[in-house]
Amino acid sequence: MGEAGSAIRVLHVDDDRQYAETTAAFLKRERVAFDIEIATSARKGLRLLETAAVDCIVSDYEMPGQNGIDFLESVREDYPDLPFILYTGRGSEAVASDAISAGVTDYLQKAPDTSHYALLSNRIVNAVKQYRSQRALEASKDRLSLFIDQSPLGFVEYNQDFEIVRVNETLTEIFGYTETELLGETWETFVSSESYDDVDAVTSALSEASGGYHSVNENVRKDGERIVVEWHNRLVTDDSGDVVTIFSHCQDVTERIEHEQNLAQLRDFFAEAEELGALGAWEYDESGMSTWTAGTRRIHEVDDDFDPTVEDGLSFYHPEDRETVSDAVDAALNDGDPYDLEVRLITARGNHRWVRTRGKRVEGAEKPTVRGFIQDITEQKERERRLRVQNERLDSFASVVSHDLQGPLTVAQGHLELAQQDVANDHLDSIDAAHERMQTLIDDILTLAREGREATTTEPVNLRTAATACWETMETESAALETDTDSVVLADLGRLQRLFSNLFRNCVAHGSESSPSQVQQDSMEHGQMGQPGQSGEAVENGGGVTVTLGDIDDASGFYVADDGPGIPEDERNTVFEAGYSTASEGTGFGLAIVADIAAVHGWDVSVTDSESGGARFEITGVDKEM
Length: 626
What we know:
Strand order of the largest sheet: 2-1-3-4-5
Pfam family, one: PAS_3
Keywords: Kinase, Phosphoprotein, Transferase
InterPro entries: CheY-like_superfamily, HATPase_C_sf, HATPase_dom, His_kinase_dom, HisK_dim/P_dom, HisK_dim/P_sf, PAC, PAS
EC number: 2.7.13.3
Number of helices: 17
CATH superfamily of the largest domain: Response regulator
Number of domains: 4
CATH topology of the largest domain: Rossmann fold
Helix content: 40-55%
Strand content: 15-25%
Largest sheet: 5 strands, parallel
Protein name: histidine kinase
């Protein structure tokens, strides 16, 4: 009906128009803000109320038709709170009583002098002020109620004893209770016992009118499900400090908390992975801004708050590699070309490092952005360097063996054959055996040098097929091979068959030995498989031994076992060392070659007892096809 400070619209109902107009003139003299409409009957006054906005009604009592009380009762049917002042020339306790019963706002008797107009003016102003304030308060309450009812947050209101007096629908959905089930209850209804102490602290502080509090605690739904709820609590007081109400807003943050915990775990995981892998991540955009992770800063040996531009980041690379990296970053930014480089880096502390840096453009970014990883590969590069030196030395050594030793030995063998044609002498046979021994050593040394290189090609190989083919080329007397596997492994076929050949010959050669103290070493594995005339063709004491090939159940690998005397536990760490042998005819290189073949495949080899007490060689870390 109007705001405070604006014009006050008054409807004056009096059957004496002249008196009504006089009253209007005096009221406007008192306050210019009065806007007065006159009606000469209650019926006309009701019609005006239907079409005009009115802040206050001033009505005479004695009027034809409806009197002032009848008019008041009609007004109250549609306007229960509209200010209504009964302004009458007839004063009596009966009239005043009836007016009060009908809901009159004020009662004022007309007077013969003009002084009472000032009093009427004040009564009107005060009534309208109170009316407008009440309307504003009710409107505010309506808006608040609408906000509470439609809020996506749960709402609960308590009295001073922290008993629930109001909840909204969102809160009932969060906790699974109906409004009826919650009214009159306390917060203990949905707070878990483990959170009582925390909630007690909040309610105690609120009871002392200490203000609002924010808390996150575990709550329990009606169905028993435990959830994490975030609360915002507030105590409202009036001007005198008395508590008006206590209310709380809340929301179920279980998923958010779990998400935050998962993110924290992921951050910890990636931070640990970066540190363990000497790895870091980075991001550059076309504006030159960059972001480095902690791992990237560690590699560059800079402080935690260091965030370089693209140019600053490029400045760490070796001058000879800087342009290469710069061109790769530009191509990734502008053309979307990914890159993978191994380049040199000079850290903030002046240390020279080798790094692998990879980057690609981020699709869908607001502006061209490159994101990638950097890894410290200094140790890898050093290992590669040492391997190159080692291979060069092996090549040189193999050259000496194959040329400088093989030549003189061939000459000696030729002269021995000529001497044996002319002279029959047991000493010449001993020389012949020594020559064969030397030839075996040369063959094994060359094999060891050749097998100790990285495997160049691998392919799917059926273990049963490869082992059976190898066994059939060997002189095994009465020994038997049992295969209990259908596995297919990724391997270099030739080297895998060399591994089987050396293990099988070792098992056959020592499978029938009666003394377990003698270390099983291959004395017959030398030379090329299945080529008669080569050393190792004959097999000692092979009778009756059974060799088994099978899968290792609890690991990715396979085993070769025999039912012979086995290998003493205190000697198992040395059997794979080159040159170690207790057999009179062994060179000590057979199992060393097995270890090298396994190593170049990335496998591990070990020896233990078989089920029958013999030797069991286990090869693990093998890639198998399912």
